[in-house]
Amino acid sequence: MSRVTKKASSVCTDSPLSMSEVCQKMTLMRQILTSCFGPNGRLKQVHNNVGGHVLTTSTSTSLLQAVSSSEPLLKLITASILNHLSRFSDCGLYTGILCFSLIDHVQKSGLRPSVAIKINKQLLEVCTSFLNQEDCGCKVNVDFNSCQSLVTLARSVISSKPACVLTEGEQQHISTLAVHAFLLTVPCGDTPGSPDRVRLGKTVTVSIEGQFVLDSAVFPGLLVNVPDMQLHPTDSERTRRGPGPFRLALFTVSLSGDLSEFGEGSLEVHSGAPDPEDLILDELLKLGEQAVTDQVEVFMCQRVIHPVLQHYLRRHGVLVVERLGIALIEPIVQMTGAQAVALYQTPIPPEAYGQVKGCCVRTVGSREMLHLLPPREPAPAVCTMVLCHRNDTMLNELKAVCQRAEHVLRLTLRDPVALLGGGCTETHMAAYISNKGTTEAAKAALSLGVSQSQYLLGLNGFCSSLEAVALALVHDGETGLVDLSYAHHWSVPQGEAIHSGTVPQGEAIHSGTVPQGEAIHSGTVAQGEAIHSGTVAQGEAIHSGTVPQGEAIHSGTVAQGEAIHSGTVPQGEAVQRGDGDEVPATCGCGLVERSARPGLEWTPLNTRYPSRSAPLVVGKDTPPQLRVLDSFTAKLNALQVAVEMANLVLDIRYVIQDVN
Amino acid sequence: MGMRLQPRCLQLDSVLQTVSVLEAVIRRSFGPDGGQVLFTRDTGQTLLTRHGTRILTALRVEHPLARMVVECVRRHSSVTGDGSKTFVLLLASLLREIQKHTRKARQEGAGAKRLAEALLAFGLDELSDVITVAVAPHGSSLSDPHTPGQTDTHTLCRLLSAFLHTRISPTHAEIISQLTCELLSHWSCHGDFINEHFPALHTAVSGFPIGCSRLLEGQVIHADFSTPLPLRDHRPIRALAVTEPLEPSLLIDGTVLELGGANREIESVCVRLGRRLDSVCVILQHLGVSLLLSSVRQSEAFLAAVGRYGVCVLECVCEDDLTLFSVLKDRGRPHSLVVCGLTEGQTEQSVCAVRDALHMLHTTWGPKHRTRATERTARTDVMEPCVISVGGTFEFLLHHTLLQRKHGQTHSVTHSHTHTLSHTDMHTLSHTDTHTLSHTDMHTLSHIDTHTPSHTDTHTQSNADTHTLSHLDNPAVSGMLAEALLSVPRQIYSHNPRHYLEAHAHTLSCMRNHGNSTDLPEISAVLAADGSNMVQADTGSGSGSGSGVKEVTVWSSSGSSSGVESVSCKYQLILAVLQCLRSLLSVDTVLHANTSHTLSHACQREEEEGD
């Protein structure tokens, strides 16, 4: 009789987002993700309560897999980010930060979830159609005639993973290798038989601990790990022999001669009959004989080869490699054109032989490896990437990162475009959406069936969330600025900012209260517009706009001379015309150069400046060297996933947890 | 020993309390403003749903009466695939009506059980006629007016879209319903085929937004290539489905291979083995087979051997795929549905909703459809596959007709208007009433009874004596049903009571117009996507269709056409609720026994089926 267990009733939570406990957990998760984001992100050490392995990482995949929450909402979000990563390998943190930020903004705005969901959905459609436009200002074409943009793309992925601990030179080296490996796996010319389909090759990664990162390298062909004892003197001789091509035979069946291969039943041997094992060995030797007559020069087996057969083959000058492991079989098949043989009782069919151009022994770090050279030039799409790093943790991270980079590079084959990195895509898109949304608010609100003020509130939250992602790149106390012409993202280092004295102004407006008092104190309140340029040579232009009550502009007491404030209006404008030293030479992605475009004006990110004209598109006739590029495909999907996930979480009214 | 009697006088109140708790949960995901319910399984899986039955079973309630209700809902929804949330709302509201009535007429001896029986008898005997006469003319037929026997695709899409709006997030219902419509149109059959083969006709992919869902031409086989397909020219591919290993293992467990003597050495055995493989390959080549679908795992030697002959193999193809594959050959160009979602929970929700939508269509289409539960009634066959606008139209119409029956034909419209208004007030009362029943109540409730019920008179269907009951002289019955029905539209418009009144008034005016005009306009009290009511009746545009039913298309402000729902599903729903009500109220005592192996087994089984 089966045991009858009583099921306990489920635990129910009504409107989970209104519970402070859930909100705390979500805030914590958001902080974790935000602090990991970008090249200056902070690392996280994850260790469990029973000791053991300590994981040091800042990548979303490792982090989200390691940190599991009991909170169903967080579980849902985590699962969706991981699912996105399993398809696109990039933009995991981006998805998480944007998603949490959207939820947060909707909660703060007090919009009804169903209204906010509709608005978010509509704005997402605006975003995706904007990104898919030909003349979209944050998109650049990937030029396959030069490696430049590919290397930038790879470096953006690699540099955003600080747990690899790479110097700038090392980052460049690894990025170049990643692009090299990627290019090697793209087959050249037409694939026979199917002109419309291309089969990408494989990159096999070999990781070596304790070497310098700069020793990492990419080889066309395959590096096969061969234990010392297997590299027989005759083999070394063989590897030295002149240029190929050599014939290669590949077996997946075990050639050990064991009877256990036959199955589960038992064998009954009559007395006087020959030992079946001897007979099998005879079979194996027959196979060896055929290999020798067919002039096979490389004999490989996924599993074990009987020592007698090995000896026989070596004596005839054949290079023997056993115990390849299943992972290498497919790359070998792909590279050599051999067919893996799974039966030794019948002769090897002639078409099963493959070819290698040659083989040699390479010393990689502490290991000696057999290098199989691809039979033809150009190499048919198989290469080996040797990655070196000082210790195991960093090496693992590096390996994962290189696989990401490869995936991201491959995505460009489908969509040969990339997005501007460094937060510029987000700020530019936010400015575009903000402008478009504000001008078309009445129409959009009507079509969604929401009031115009609701729509503007939703729009505001959406744009702020996008800017929050750009702001998350900033970790060292820098100030994130956005320029008013192109809406690109600029970050001002902390030290300089304090020195020049303009950023406290921005911060003040960010927080909103302190200078107000001072402004009133100064007493130089003018009706209408008051513009003041003080003692500073460059002259800070003060731009107060359309405030009717008047501006309090304070000049006397502050040493720097400038304190600008439009106190009574919540949407104060703090605009600085920058030719001060504090603003860096280029924006986050490197497309906008300050020197080339005089007259730029900046405002701190996530301050509520009044709606302005649509951001200009930077002409790409003479593109300067872009510093950061992000994968278009991955980011587009990430954007959709983040918004949909936020909508989903907002839509959840009730949680039922089965506690059995 | 070990028994505890509950006081009988509390019966109706406690039943109502139990059902109200369930109602409070269900209400979160009901109607156009309803949201999702996130639930975790005991396996740790996180799933999403707006499906009433799923929500109720996930609660794992312990109260025997609540379990009975959950079981009734489950059974109803497994038959029609629809209406599980409305079921609970209607049940709770009927119980409230009964409670009101018994309080009012205690001295008349109108017991709750008697009322429930009278309601059921009314439902079984007369409801069908009432609906056919009063409601069906206001709806439209699902079959194409121009070619009888064919389904009108436009109406079908509206039906599907309205159903899916109740089951998945409104922002995604559009795309999924569109795909389902396309799927149905591609198969150009009455959905039964798709219904039957749905497991093989859809593929769930997580990690992409729902917007990436699409229809693929052809059948998707859910297995990986063991040996990949050699790329060839676009010649037709011959495929062979096999269900057993083509190279049997030489030594099967428990057999003995005798070696020795002529031709019995191990080498000759091996050679025979090799030859046999070769001969299989030759046969395959002779047949021109280049694709092998195998439901079992094949040996490595076999894979390598057929690979040399350019045959590619898929192993462990699931049974559903193979069945579909084998019946496909004489059916045009198949299409299958690819459902994308962010997580497994989301794709499963969409798949589940589409499956139930197909089920619901099956119920709507099948006029001869009979279920065990409604065997005696068997009145569904008079009803055409008829649909009516969503937004409470059905309930308003039926409510009004029932009231007219109650008060006689002289009932004036103005009277009913005041009637409605007074009820709105009452509604606010009852609304706050149930709101106080938060989930803490649920908690206490679930702890009252810690044992499985020893006996509940659950599934007794209406027996002979209910039939003899004279319900005709009891106008209270139709009045009660009429009032109870209003709880559904009230909940639909719960976030804006003004819309409720507008919708009601609109339906009434349409009904009055209908009485005067020869045309039969389709009445709609449609809730637009925004929640602002876009009540419109088309009385001017005269694109009269063949059957004389004027098709009124109401476009909601979001541009999507308004939804419709099936009248026969609604009818079956009311019947199921009445049956459940009767069985609930025929229980007078809950006994708690300590040992009841056989029954708990039965419960266990039921529960597993329910999952």
Automatic annotation (TrEMBL), chain A:
Record-level GO cellular component terms: cytoplasm; kinociliary basal body; nucleus
Give the superkingdom in one word: Eukaryota
- Single Gene Ontology BP annotation: developmental process
Q: Name one GO molecular function term.
A: ATP binding
List the PANTHER family hit by this protein, alphabetically: MOLECULAR CHAPERONE MKKS, SYNDROMES PUTATIVE CHAPERONIN-RELATED
Its recorded name reads McKusick-Kaufman syndrome
Origin organism is Oncorhynchus tshawytscha
Gene name linked to the record: MKKS
Automatic annotation (TrEMBL), chain B:
GO annotation, biological process:
chaperone-mediated protein complex assembly
Quick one: signal sequence residues?
Answer: none
MF term (GO), any: ATP binding
Q: Which UniProt keywords apply?
A: ATP-binding, Chaperone, Nucleotide-binding
Pfam families for this protein: Cpn60_TCP1
Entry's InterPro entries?
BBS10, Chaperone_TCP-1, Cpn60/GroEL/TCP-1, GROEL-like_equatorial_sf
Similarity annotation: Belongs to the TCP-1 chaperonin family.
Record protein name field = Bardet-Biedl syndrome 10
